[in-house]
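In this supplementary section we document a worked example of the pipeline. Step one takes a protein sequence of length 122 as its only input; no multiple sequence alignment statistics are reported here. Step two produces a three-dimensional model, which step three serialises into structure tokens for compact storage. The input and output of this example are shown verbatim.
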Amino acid sequence: MPLTADLLVALIALLHVYILVMEMFLWEKETGRRFSGFDARLARETAAMAANQGLYNGFLAAGLVWGLVSGDPTGFAAKVFFLSCVVIAGLYGAATANRRILYAQALPGALALSAVLVAGPS
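The serialised model returned by step three reads:
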């Protein structure tokens, strides 16, 4: 189970790197506009806000990677903390911005968090 948990954590970290790239670097390009659903004008007007959000997603990814490379108890605690942040951010985003965030971020984060908690510290 620890390997499965770590693979799920790694996938969540990769998801947040992907979101970082979309929000920080591709927001105003066609790929980023498909990601956000915004037209060119709205993407241009929200680019600074999206870049800020992308930076936060990068911090989540970095924290998850830290949890993966650190020994326990630090690694376990970091994974639990940052996955909890992912889930909370996903729930908030789903409630305030777009319901699909529930399925794209909160649910995968909750599954990874559950796997980490079941596996426990090594």
